[in-house]
User: Which sequence fits this backbone?
């Protein structure tokens, strides 16, 4: 009996040692005023992918992130008949992470791809015409690393929306997708999962890309 207990304790210690990515601070759905509608059990999922999006809408800082989320949720419910925000997590320009729909339910999308198994992360802004903030990049890395660790999602299953919905979208925009295409983002995530603190910061503007950074101030 003592040997069994000792073996179990060693297993628990090993699992704790491997869990290097800590859960980032997340603003709960109730805290920003979410008003979700029921999601049917038929849309339950087992996470297998982490799919990253941008909003595709220019962020000017004219409203608070909380107001933006409430408006997005209400629009989706009225116009698209989505029961909740289409994404599971959303990251504001100041780096705050907001909870969207529960992870146990598949996301929604305007594009056609297999939705089941996807954890959707959306960053505010349109990264075809503006650049993600350093805070957004850092929060997205920390969140992705924790989710990949928590749900045992392989690094290679971290992707952009355009990878999932091929030839249908440019999401998450050229100035974010660069970090996926050159391997930087997955490298930062891997290092974070190993307990390191990677130097996550925006690269120089792309030759054919935007130069204006997204505003990070609150109204």
Assistant:
């Amino acid at each position: 009996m003592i040997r069994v207990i000792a073996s179990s304790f060693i297993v628990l210690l090993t699992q704790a040692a491997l869990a290097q990515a800590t859960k980032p601070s997340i603003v709960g759905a109730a805290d920003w005023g979410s008003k979700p509608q029921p999601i049917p059990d038929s849309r339950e999922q087992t996470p297998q992918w982490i799919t990253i999006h941008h909003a595709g809408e220019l962020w000017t800082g004219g409203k608070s992130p909380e107001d933006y989320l409430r408006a997005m949720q209400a629009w989706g419910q009225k116009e698209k008949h989505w029961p909740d925000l289409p994404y599971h997590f959303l990251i504001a320009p100041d780096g705050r992470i907001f909870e969207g729909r529960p992870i146990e339910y598949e996301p929604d999308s305007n594009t056609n791809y297999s939705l089941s198994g996807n954890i959707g992360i959306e960053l505010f802004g349109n990264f075809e015409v503006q650049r993600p903030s350093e805070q957004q990049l850092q929060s997205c890395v920390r969140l992705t690393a924790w989710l990949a660790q928590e749900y045992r999602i392989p690094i290679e299953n971290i992707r952009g929306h355009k990878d999932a919905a091929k030839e249908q979208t440019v999401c998450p925009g050229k100035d974010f997708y660069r970090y996926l295409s050159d391997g930087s983002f997955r490298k930062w995530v891997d290092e974070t999962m190993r307990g390191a603190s990677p130097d996550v910061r925006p690269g120089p503007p792309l030759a054919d890309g935007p130069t204006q950074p997204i505003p990070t101030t609150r109204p």
